[in-house]
Protein: VOC family protein
Organism: Streptomyces phyllanthi
Amino acid sequence: MTEGRGSAGLNGEAHPPGTPCWVSLMVHGLAATQDFYGALFGWEFQPGPQQLGPYVRALLGGHEVAGIGQLPPDRHLPVAWTPYFSSDDVDLTAETVRHCGGTVGVGPLDAADAGRLAIASDPSGAVFGIWQAAAHLGTAISGAPGTPSWNELRTRDSAVVAKFYETVFGHEEEPITSAGVDYVTLQVKGHPVAGIHGVGTALPRDRGSHWLTSFEVADTDEAIIHVTDLGGHLLKPARDTPHGRVATVTDPEGAVFRLVHTGR
């Protein structure tokens, strides 16, 4: 519904608490994944904190936009983009996650001098991160092709899980008032920062509830061609929406993401 909405640029300031501030991807083939996203989005890479294994930060025009890490060989976890939400106190936020029926799978722990993080899942099982910034503020630019533009939780029913995020991060809920549509926009101080889409039985059984990240592109149809040429796959063809032209694709390891041209 709202795939094309992006957060404002940071201008060297930390993201407000509750705002998606970073996206990260854990993969089996780090070098091949860098080649894919580097060719698709024009990203360059530099080493990042290594607490969870080999990890690089993707840069666009010298600005940090995303992270990619190497999964341990014995870990057969789903390969998926994970959004991180900003927090002033990751330990307190992690404790609130537990009290509200979520699970904290990793941390809280320090990522060198970059900041402090935890990786958690909500009551529906969708995985997300929590980031308390220090030296690393998170995604430094928005709106340009190659930057994350929107994060949407796809789940069976929006109602219960929306209350979870409202309590944990202080989000305000803004339901979409449309017949037959179960959609809630999460807001911070009146600004839309993420969405929750209740899709009922259309939720894939093999994935369950999950966050889906959209990336801005200059031309959605051309980007689809690049994805397939680079070894990725098209899942849902491009379509026009009120917030831009959107397509759903996967990278060569199967991580699902969206391409969106908002026309900004």
In short: The chain has four helices and 16 strands. The two ends are 17 Å apart (CA to CA). The CA atoms of residues 123 and 161 lie 7 Å apart.
